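User: Some background: our group keeps a shared notebook of sequences we're curious about, and every so often someone picks one and asks for a predicted structure to add to the entry. Today it's my turn. The entry only has the sequence so far, pasted here. Could you supply the structure so I can complete it?
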Amino acid sequence: MDRHELAWAAGFFDGEGWAGKSKRGVQARINQADVNGVPAVLLRMQQALEGVGAIGGPVLKPDRLPLYSWTVSSRADVEVVLEMLKPWLGSVKLLQLSSAVGRAAPVARDVVPQDEWRAWGAGLFDGEGCSSLLGHRTHAGYMSGELCITQSSLVGSPEVLRRFVVVAHAGHISGPYSQRNATMDVYRWKAAALKDVESVLAVIWPWLGEVKRAQAQRMLDVLRAQSPLPRGNPAWGNRKTHCVNGHEYATARMRPYVSRGVGAQRRENQLCLACLRDYARAQREKKRSTADDDRRSISESVLVYLLK
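Assistant: Of course. Here's the predicted structure to add to the notebook entry:
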């Protein structure tokens, strides 16, 4: 039994799976649409679970892609799925599977920096992830890449997205967003900077399925073929020789801003030293004026007091 494949299957079920009671008993199911026949991810799911579950389909409906499903429809098999996947499953799917077979739900485990959890992240991305190219906001003709995972939730950002952030070490979660004709809000994990996109894909690549791997590779090929963009937008002054207050950078000197917070990472932005001195001087004068006003004698005029 390959634990990495089981971890992948748990991530895939966390993203696409469902479990509960049905008219004929209990059921666990994953649906996937594909125009090319049975989706490879459903075959991989069945293989990871050593043949548990049956693959059915296609279900054909007007204006929709052919729909296939991996289904477990006996109580014994649902219990097997629960036992095999529970080391990696999130709280929501643990509760669904446990409730279906009338058991108390186990506690979801914390993510740790191990390959099994990276395989779990690949499974989640295979189920709900997307690699896309978008037109650059400020540079016509350039494309920017984006990785995205979408999940619904009734109680704040979904646990599986927070877990994926830990696995990927990049990206951020945004939301909630409302959906038309939906009962739950939507949250999204996204990574858009090229270095983040590349690092996330490197983390999950060894376990990522062939379809999502091909999508990601096409996106990377386009991004890497583009010439590097200059930092900033020239129209906004990324090659300025003077600061906004007219100090020439060559004579006013530049120095990097360093946070005074303990252990804080250095920020890349820079400040004009002349502006910084003027600001500090103004702050000192402001504090001195406020303090001196409290000590001035009532009999003294302001002019006399200031000229002393």
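Suggested note for the entry: The two ends are 88 Å apart (CA to CA). The chain has a mean pLDDT of 87.
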